[in-house]
Amino acid sequence: MNKRTFIKTLCAAPLSLWAAEKQKLTNWAGNLTYGTDRVQEAGSVEEVRAFVRSHGKLKVLGTRHCFNNIADSRDQLLSLKPMHEVVAIDGDARTVTVDAGISYGQLSPYLESKGWALHNLASLPHISVAGACSTATHGSGEGNGNLATAVVGLEMVTAGGDLVKLSKAQDGEAFRGAVVGLGALGAITKVTLAVQPTYQVRQYVYEDMPLTQVRDHFDEIQASGYSVSLFTDWQKKRVNEVWIKSRVGASGFAGPAEFFGAKLATRNLHPIAEIPAENCTEQMGVAGPWYERLPHFKMGFTPSAGKELQTEYFVPRAQAVDAILAVERLREQVSPHLLISEIRTIAADDLWMSMAYRRPSVALHFTWKPDWPAVRQVLPVIERELGVYACRPHWGKLFAMEGAVVRGRYERLPEFLALAKQYDPKGKFRNEFLNRNVFGG
Fold first, then answer.
1. Burial level of 400, CB count in 10 A (0-12/13-18/19+)?
2. Does residue 383 sit in the same domain as residue 315?
């Protein structure tokens, strides 16, 4: 089945097709059924502490947007979804403190109403603040760090049920190790984020940029906006769509009719052109609040065309063009299984387990058709090509890389393991994913 037929089938399929599978606890995409259906919700910090004390093994479950089993458990799952309040805004310090269960879609309109904003958002506003930061989930932008770089304070419950507070100002290295904690250190209960005065964003979309322009002008293309995404199916030696998000101001992107060989779109588009754009954020240069433009998808819609799989690899920014061309050479192997790819830049950070640790990065993202046996075969092929760039896979997405290889890509891993031993000496929060890719057990 080709991509166009596949998409039409998904878009036309009634929800009842998935009803049987939805009876079991699955992730958002439906590709993972969790190892247990024992899920306990906690509505307060004291309930979290009591639950952690009374269980020998558990995992904290967020909004279930990870495509792999990083948050899975065969024993017990703890959901903090009821804990979704904004605790406090400190205008002098320019921070907001929130409960761990709050999503960006819940937090952002509240911040806007108070005159504040975040520096960046991911493609989806549906994800939880704590879960996104714990996996180094990101947005885009040459000068923008991932979502975890906004964190200036953490509160978490450790394996013994103790409440620990860490701050960027006071706890230095331990803080930098804990922010992208992968769920291995404890149950996060509150997060404090840096905020800034609210701002407006315009979004323009361009179609059909020749790959030669990307090769020759990648730096200029990425520097054109506050956040820039390139969407491609790796066919016809082109980038299908270029999304440029620009902060309104003196240096904002002007939206010319042509941009490095690509034509300005005359209507709103979905990243997959065959899908209607009603669930996408407003384009056509119409200015709007930051939180209604930085994500690709609106909060009120399910962004997926249906079931899908996702993979993403981070390579050094300096080697972006070489890595892009390396993947393009695999187009005959990649394209049959692909819905769309996205290419974005992310600034370097100092968070130990971040994919962009001390490395300005380019993320090569793949949204696949839901055919895991086929995708499973092509992932090693991509990883071999990108291995020369010491690529780091996204912690919350699918990859085939051996755990030893993953561990070798993180120079601060020994310190992270020591931090985990301090907060969770018996491995209460570990699971199969963490043992394979982080602890080496």
1. middle
2. yes
Cα 173 from Cα 118, distance rounded (Å): 24
Helix, strand or coil, per DSSP, at residue 266: coil
What is the per-residue pLDDT for 16?
33
Which amino acid, one-letter code, is at 257?
A
217 and 366 in a single domain? The answer is yes
| Mean pLDDT, rounded, of the chain | 93
CATH number assigned to the domain comprising residue 22: 3.30.43.10
Alpha-carbon distance values, 108 to 149, 162, 192, 319, 324 (Å): 17, 30, 14, 34, 33
Q: How many domains does the chain have?
A: 3
The pLDDT tens digits of the residues spanning 347-400 come to 999 999 999 999 999 999 999 999 999 999 999 999 999 999 999 999 999 999
**Is residue 440, in this structure, part of any structural domain at all?**
no
H helix runs in 54-103, sequence order? none
**pLDDT grade, residue 4 (50/70/90)?**
low
Q: What is the per-residue pLDDT for 125?
A: 87
**Same-domain check for residues 42 and 62:** yes
Range of the domain at 63: 3-79
pLDDT by residue (tens digit) across 225-235? 999 999 999 99
Q: Which residues of 11-43 are buried (b: 16+ CB within 10 A; e: fewer)?
A: eeeeeeeeeeeeeebbbbbbbbebbeeeeeebe
Helix, strand, coil percentages in the chain from 3-state DSSP, rounded to 5: 30, 25, 45
Cβ atoms of 236 and 211 within 8 Å: the answer is: no
For residues 168 and 179, membership in a common domain is answered with yes
Q: Write out the H or E segment, with its range, that includes residue 212.
A: helix 211-222
Task: Reply yes or no on whether the pLDDT at 18 is more than 50.
Answer: no
Report the alpha-carbon distance of residue 330 to residue 377 in Å, rounded: 13
The amino acid that residue 74 corresponds to is R
If you count them, how many residues does the chain have? Answer: 441
- Say yes or no: 342 and 234 in one domain: yes
In the three-class reduction of DSSP (H, G, I as helix; E, B as strand; rest coil), residue 415 is classed as helix
Q: Is 379 helix (H, G, I), strand (E, B) or coil?
A: helix
pLDDT of residue 3: 58
Is the separation of the CB atoms in 336 and 233 below 8 Å? no
Q: Which of 258-262, 302-306, 340-344 has the lowest mean pLDDT?
A: 302-306
Residue with tokens 């690899």: 313
Burial of 331 (0-12, 13-18, 19+ CB in 10 A): middle
pLDDT value at residue 126: 87
